[in-house]
Amino acid sequence: MSGELLRLDGVGVRLGGREILRDVSLGIRPGEFMGLIGPNGAGKTTLLRVMLGLQPVTRGSVLIGGAPRAPRDASIGYVPQKLGIEPDMPLRVRDVVSLGIDGHKFGIRLPSRARRELVDDMLTAVGAQGYADARVGELSGGEQQRVMIAHALIGRPRLLLLDEPLANLDISSEQGIVSVLARLARAEGIAVLLSAHDMNPLMPVMDRIAYVAAGRVALGRTDEVVQPEVLSGLYGQHVDVIRVHGRVLVVAAPEGADAAHRDEAAEDASVVG
What we know:
Blueprint: E1 6-15, E2 18-28, E3 33-37, H1 44-52, E4 59-64, E5 67-68, E6 76-79, H2 93-98, H3 112-125, H4 141-153, E7 159-163, H5 171-188, E8 191-196, E9 208-213, E10 216-220, H6 222-225, H7 228-235, E11 239-244, E12 247-252, H8 259-266, E13 271-272
Parallel strand pairs: 3-8, 3-9, 6-7, 7-8, 12-13
Antiparallel strand pairs: 1-2, 1-4, 4-5, 9-10, 11-12
């Protein structure tokens, strides 16, 4: 589709003789918020590595802006699940964010005043200005996530990939992170693809969902994809979609399992492989 920032066509990946991804096709457009949803081991991390150029594909193509993906592409920002900094390192929040300015560039650095203003603007954009001078190791999980998002965004990427950024956060922190990302996507035209185990925090803001199971992907609006018949075909076994207390639970169970057993399995999980 024209205007897409990222396009995967018929992508397959085999590792150690095992098929990890099979015939994956998807695209993401400027300003779009897409959830990459699926159980552990479904292939989400491998798919992100393909998009980042870290994992060669066995078949298919990966296009950025309609052209083959370059080895170093500053148009893609990445936020890992955890901050790779030791808690006792004497790094302030603004120092970490500043590192994102020149991470992919060579030559003349921005003057210190311009750098500080750019860092301040980005910290304000993600709601982290209030602890700009705090040591990173002293921050909560949700605060650290905001710092990592600012670090990734300060290089002005057109596409932002996030690997399980909501893992181990409380509900308030989840909502804060999702709100920040949705606002930036709309206001700045940045495409956001967020990997998550639980789709529920993303339901209010997702434009489309890419649901990953057994190395394959179903793509579309949430109401199109999160249906028993669609997900049963994706998993290759019977799947129930249960809506309870405003949440959506996806439970894959062997054919013939009774409703009581499926309901019991759904109590503590949003996606069960």
